[in-house]
Amino acid sequence: MGLGTFSPNLDSHGNSVRGLKVCEALSSRFDLHMLNRSADVRTCIIADYDVFGISSRRSRQPHEQQILDERHSDIRVIELVGALNFATIDHVTRRLAGEPPNAPLLILDFRRVPDLTAAGAQLLGENLTMLGNTGVTAILTGLEATSPVWTEVRARAADPQRLRRFALLDEAIEWAEDQVIYRYGGFTSSKETSHLGAQALLADLAPEEIAVLADLSTTRRYEAGQRIISAGETANSLFFLQSGMVSVKLPSGVRLASLGPGMEFGEMAIIEQHRSADVWADTAVTCLELPLDSFADYRHLHPQIALKIMRNLSTLLARRLILANAKVDLLSAY
Q1: Which of helix, strand or coil describes residue 221?
Q2: Domain that holds residue 294
Q3: CA dihedral 252, 253, 255, 261 (to 10 degrees)
Q4: Which comes out higher in pLDDT, residue 332 or 82?
Q5: 242, part of any domain
Q6: Same domain (yes/no): 157, 204
Q7: What is the CATH number of the domain that holds 232?
Q8: Are residues 143 and 281 in the same domain?
Q9: Residues 221, 250: one domain?
Q10: Are 19 and 5 in contact (CB under 8 A)?
């Protein structure tokens, strides 16, 4: 595309005075100086995907996971990389125009973006405004509230209150998942408490078999913010979460998973001697603690039941491995 302007008066070189002013204004606004050359703008997108198999670290109830499996394309994630300018943002907007985000939830990850020019921020802000007018919720991640990139983009969006910001990509994906589950009625059937028979680790066990395990367990209650398990300590029990929420974290604070009623934690004690992560109560928590010594006696007395439990544990570990493989495949694809 070429752009030509002409309008008297002419200067001493025969150039249109007002035409030059137009070109100068365009060059200044869009950072189009001849020395500001960009490399291959396609490299600014390191990944573009929906959340099928790439879910957040929050473990979901079966009916919630079913909704996410069916509506995974409602969430689109684009991970950006490098210093961004008008040219690279233009590529992103063309990508969105060529492959419209039919997903009502669009996540743009900026954690690998050190800088964004004013021209790039202007174009991005305008594009996010247009997407918002079509019903798309834009979510920006990898940005702190004081980030210059967030300040630039927010200032140029027509309605900044419609933009969402999260410091971590995983938090943004979890929030987007919550929106999808809510829109399709997933939270209306959520249970605040769970019976021991609802535990995935105890699937296919008869009620009387579960009752024996319940008799061997002790009810524990924890306040929000209390540490339940510490990394490195001896693994001598496993827990069945009946109510509340817990998070599994590395000692560095990185979250590995968040769990709700009907889920177990500390189950790796069956095959490991020491705890590999911390477990914290996010809310008030009620759970059953089953000592490994009691569980070992139970396994000797009921080997067929123990076989079912080990098979269920293998299924849980296989699911985690599938999820980890999907994330590795995503990284290796770009």
Answers
A1: strand
A2: 196-332
A3: 130
A4: 82
A5: yes
A6: no
A7: 2.60.120.10
A8: no
A9: yes
A10: yes
At residue 13, the 3 state secondary structure works out as coil
Check if the beta carbon of residue 236 is closer than 8 Å to that of residue 269.
yes
Q: Structure tokens of 72?
A: 């995974």
Strand order in the sheet with 278-281: 227-229, 278-281, 246-249, 255-259
- Contacts of residue 99, defined as CB under 8 A and 6 or more positions apart, other chains included, come to none
Q: What is the structure's pLDDT at 58?
A: 87
**62-70 vs 169-183: helix crossing angle, rounded to 10:** 90
Q: Is residue 8 part of a domain?
A: no
Task: Using the 3D structure, point to which of 187, 222, 237 is the last residue of a domain.
Answer: 187
Say yes or no: 202 and 181 in one domain.
no
Number of residues that this document lists for the chain: 334
Alpha-carbon distance of 128 to 137, in angstroms, equals 9
Q: Are 289 and 218 in contact (CB under 8 A)?
A: yes
To the nearest whole number, what is the mean pLDDT of the chain? 86
| The pLDDT of residue 287 is above 90 | yes
Q: What element of type H or E holds 241?
A: strand 237-243
The sign one gets for the Cα dihedral 270, 243, 257, 319 is: positive
Which 8-state DSSP code applies to residue 9?
A: P
- pLDDT band for position 15 (50/70/90)? confident
What pLDDT, on a 0 to 100 scale, did the predictor assign at position 211?
87
Q: What span, in angstroms and rounded, lies between the C-alpha atoms of 264 and 270?
A: 12
Which tens digit of pLDDT belongs to each residue from 195-250? 777 788 888 888 888 888 888 999 999 999 999 999 999 999 999 999 999 999 99
Rounded Cα gap, residues 169 and 172, in angstroms = 5
pLDDT of the residue at 256: 87
Write the DSSP string, 96-145.
HHHS---SSEEEEEEEE---B-HHHHHHHHHHHHHHHHTTPEEEEES--T
Domain count, the chain: 2
